[in-house]
Write a structure and sequence with these properties.
Layout (H helix, E strand, L loop, with lengths): L39 H4 L17 H12 L22 H8 L1 H4 L11 H18 L3 E3 L5 H18 L6 E5 L5 H8 L3 E5 L9 H7 L4 E7 L11 H10 L3 E5 L19 E3 L2 H4 L14 E3 L11 E5 L2 E5 L16 H37 L16 E4 L1 H7 L3 H10 L6 E2 L8 E4 L7 H20 L1 H5 L12 H6 L7
The structure holds pyridoxal-5'-phosphate (PLP).
């Protein structure tokens, strides 16, 4: 057996479940009707009645179970193996969180339950808001937004309202060239225009460039700290001062909070509003498009604008209050993705302050260990041999010497049983390989991954064609990604 976990396994082909359908086959057995039958046409308005039965697949229970079980084996997950997808914080999610979220009192609670019958749920919301506020140094938190990007959007809506109330909504938002794509999207959706700020050669936000661009037309600066090249923005204090002195707000993209918890608080270094990605930092399985949760935290001046309803604690108990006249209103139906919030609550309660601090310390230690192991095989464009919670390498030297690119390295990793890192992001690093091991990986797992990275770099020099042909150990080989995006074949022939 190879030293890597590898990917050879039973790989079933699986047609669409509709193609398995056989007239009259069923997976359900219903008891005989013991009440008089009615014609739906007599009970419901005619226009709501179908002319033809819905085209549902007619399959037996084992066919359904096998179909979905087989499909599940096509997926790679953090429960299979190391998943260093940078920026996404693919940490292992403790199973006890799943148990807590599935407790009937949590999972079956109807969102229209009156407050007095949902005291426990509102208390969880109230406490989670306070715990996140404590971790971040923010004066107020709303759990409504459904994802990180939605939290960004909500924060900028609040900033816009605060500025509008001052009589000056302003026009632009500054964004560093290392930012995540959701930042400019947020700006545009809020009716602002984006102005990019370039980083220094060392990869930091440059206070001088900020000072040059920061004028009376700028509503906010959106920054990520640690930034997307895995470095702590060392000029953050100075940058905050410049933005505040010209009447702007400093937004912090909180997606990288996993590097800071218990060690530094965004609110203490000048951030006025930020989002939390509960599904990243606070352990909810993610990667399939949700559900996630992107609470937003704000400084004192913005608390009055938080979305409503807000959970409040009174002498008579907890309630959901609409009584905040300056609110931006509701940004999500009901109270956000409650199940994800419950998982974060369980995680926060389990770890406590010392545990959260250790999470961040271990995440940073693991990334630095990985950096140390691969630095002689890959070009590391930034960071003086050290990083925060993620390592950004590049294919510069490999490409020059062997024509093996980042894409080939990623495919080679798949053959060795690893999920590839984030590739070609951040854009300021050409051929980027952004690896985030997270705190949940053991020393051995980091070493196995580094060994695979090094083996690939060596193979690039001896047999580059082998890497151009990767992956070979998977159910499907290298896909034509352009055709897959432009001319997808969604139905098996
Ligand atoms: C993931 C991420 C986001 C967006 O968060 P979603 O929850 O995916 O919407 C924003 N910024 C950074 C730096 C991220 O890594």
């Amino acid at each position: 057996m190879s030293k890597h976990p590898g990917t050879k396994t039973i790989g079933f082909n699986e047609p669409l479940i509709f193609d398995r359908s056989k007239e009259g086959r069923s997976g359900a057995s219903l008891p005989k009707l013991d009440v008089p039958s009615v014609d739906p046409g007599e009970v419901f308005p005619k226009e709501l009645i179908r002319d033809e039965a819905a085209a549902l697949p007619q399959v037996s229970e084992p066919e359904v179970v096998r179909h979905f079980t087989r499909l599940s084996t096509w997926n790679f997950s953090v429960d299979h193996q190391f998943y260093p997808l940078g920026s996404c914080t693919m940490k292992y999610n403790p199973k006890i969180n799943e148990w807590v979220a599935r407790l009937p009192g949590h999972a079956n609670l109807h969102p229209y339950t009156p407050d007095r019958l949902a005291q426990g749920a509102i208390e969880i919301l109230w406490e989670t808001e306070r715990m996140l506020g404590e971790v971040s140094g923010m004066a107020g938190v709303s759990l409504q937004p459904a994802a990180g990007a939605h939290g960004e959007l909500t924060a900028l809506m609040m900033i816009r309202k605060a500025l509008t109330d001052r009589g000056d909504p302003r026009k632009k938002v500054l964004i560093p060239d290392t930012a995540h794509g959701t930042n400019p999207a947020t700006v545009t959706l809020n009716g602002y225009t984006v102005e990019a700020v370039s980083s220094t050669e060392e990869g930091f936000l440059d206070p001088e460039s900020v000072a040059q661009k920061m004028d009376d037309s700028v509503a906010a600066l959106m920054m990520t700290n640690p930034n997307t090249i895995g470095l702590f923005e060392k000029h953050i204090g100075e940058v905050a001062e410049i933005v505040h002195s010209r009447g702007g707000f400093l937004f912090g993209d909180g997606a990288n909070l996993n590097a800071l918890m218990g060690c530094g608080r965004p609110g203490d270094f000048g951030i006025d509003a930020m989002q939390f990605n509960l599904h990243k930092t606070f352990s909810t399985p993610h990667g399939g498009g949700g559900p996630g949760s992107g609470p937003v935290g704000v400084c004192e001046a913005l608390v009055q604008y938080l979305p409503t309803p807000r959970p409040v604690k009174t002498a008579e108990g907890f309630l959901l209050s609409q009584d905040f006249p300056n609110t931006i209103g509701r940004v999500r139906s009901f109270l956000g993705n409650f199940g994800v919030i419950v998982r974060a609550y369980a995680y926060l309660r389990e770890l406590g302050a010392p545990g959260l601090k250790k999470v961040s310390q271990m995440a940073v230690l693991n990334a630095n260990y990985l950096l140390h192991l691969i630095k002689d095989s890959y070009h590391i464009p930034f960071g003086d041999g050290r990083c925060m919670h993620e390592v950004v390498a590049s294919d510069r030297d490999l490409l020059k010497e062997t024509h093996v690119s980042t894409l080939d390295v990623a495919k080679g990793l798949i053959d060795r049983g690893f999920h590839p890192p984030t590739v070609y992001f951040p854009l300021v690093v050409k051929g980027a390989l952004m690896c985030e091991p997270t705190e949940t990986e053991s020393k051995e797992a980091v070493e196995e991954f580094a060994a695979a990275m090094i083996e690939i770099a060596e193979l690039a020099r001896t047999d580059p064609e082998a890497l151009h042909a990767a992956p070979q150990n998977t159910r499907l080989g290298r896909l034509d990604e352009t055709a897959a995006a432009r001319k997808p074949i969604l139905k098996a022939e």
